[in-house]
Amino acid sequence: MCFALYSANLALHKVYRKLLGQLDLTYPQYLVMLVLWQRDDVTVSDIGEKLFLDSATLTPLLKRLEVAGLLLRQRAKTDERQVIITLTDAGRALQEKAKSIPEAILCATECDVDEMVALKQQLELLRANLKDKS
Question: 134 pLDDT exceeds 80?
């Protein structure tokens, strides 16, 4: 099971790499952008909770996205410890270019939507079960 999951992940990332190369994004950067396209002006910890990543992992990612002109990082006025992440106009515009990615991924899997939903639910359950053990 572990190797099947690992090797499927590798194969999926190869497909994503090809698609995201056109946007100059890595897969982790794409995930951050997905979070921000759903809800802008969020804290680093909000993004980390959604993606199951800690701030030490997110900070370099966010810095690279800021250098690319896709987002801004600013200290919260109410709490200097918090960093608020806001999309730039370029970051918002990138969403339109990325709209075809989910469908392209679905096509690449050669699965139907019901199969993908069921697989996603199984993987989320597996993640939740394993998270309790770590």
Answer: no
